[in-house]
Amino acid sequence: MEQSTNVVAEKEDIRKTEDAQEVINTGKYKALLEAILFIEVEPISYKKLSDMLKIPVKEVKKYVVELADDYKKRESGLYISELGNGVKMTTNPVYADFLKQFYKKKRKMKFSKAALETLAIIAYRQPITKAEIESIRGVSSDAIVRDLLDKKLVKVVGKKEDVPGKPMLYGTTKEFLLMFGIKSIKDLPKIKEIKESSFE
User: Fold this and answer.
1) pTM of structure
2) Residues 134-146: pLDDT tens digits?
3) Could you say which of 2.40.50.140, 1.10.10.10, 1.20.1050.90, 3.40.50.1000 is the CATH number of the domain covering 2-100?
4) CA–CA separation, 171 and 129 (whole Å)
5) Residues 187, 84 contacting (CB under 8 angstroms)
6) Cβ-count burial 120-138 (b if 16+ within 10 Å, e if not)
């Protein structure tokens, strides 16, 4: 009977040790994740984080959610943003107006009305050819498309195979998502919403 009690006690000790180890591991991974996101300037993919931490992507996503919740609960000045298939640490949008008083971007992108119009067409109609862009705008868009390519807001995503000459198809980039603070193109406001808000 005494031997049986000792075995049960040993198993309980092992379970407690494993539970404690799990807590340590969770804390370690979250801390490492936080450090990586602090260092990285650009959004980093879940796959790359998985490779770096040597844990499954599913676990990485779990720790990202937990870290984001930690920041939210304590009203932290830091914020975890999901952009495309990646994640990035940023300042909390709640404090944006205050921070703008003291910290201004060193390099702001300036856009003409024509450039914004072209960028919007590409964002909402992608993948799209230059000829299709020009058909919508009614004017040549060579220079504007080149400028957007240089700014890395759009990129060539393929070729339109069923059209003579197989013209290049354009789409938006991760930099575009980052600039507008959205996770994916699906997060863009609907055309109907924009039209309605413009008449309010």
Assistant:
1) 0.54
2) 999 999 888 899 9
3) 1.10.10.10
4) 9
5) no
6) ebbbeeebbbbebbbeeee
